[in-house]
Amino acid sequence: MIMSRQDFLACSGLEGQTLEIWLEQRWIIPEPSGEGAAFSDRDVARARLIQELIRDFGVNHEGVDVILHLTDQLHGLRQALSELRSENLGRKPAPQPL
């Protein structure tokens, strides 16, 4: 679901000032739209993850950077694996050596 900044703030529980900081740090990267920025459910989930890391686990900003980077890499690898699986479903299996 695509949402406005105000809807995003309401769904994520963030304050506007915190969102501005997170946007500057590129922890949240909304899609550009004609009305400024369009936030998604994925952005809300990411904001909640960041909140939990900081509030519940005491992770500092450098730690959040590392965790988000690794999370993004993991999602990228999962996407690549999914694409490879889809490509291989249409192919015949390679002959096995005797």
Automatic annotation (TrEMBL):
<dbReference type="Pfam" id="PF13591">
    <property type="entry name" value="MerR_2"/>
</dbReference>
<dbReference type="InterPro" id="IPR009061">
    <property type="entry name" value="DNA-bd_dom_put_sf"/>
</dbReference>
<protein>
    <submittedName>
        <fullName>Chaperone modulatory protein CbpM</fullName>
    </submittedName>
</protein>
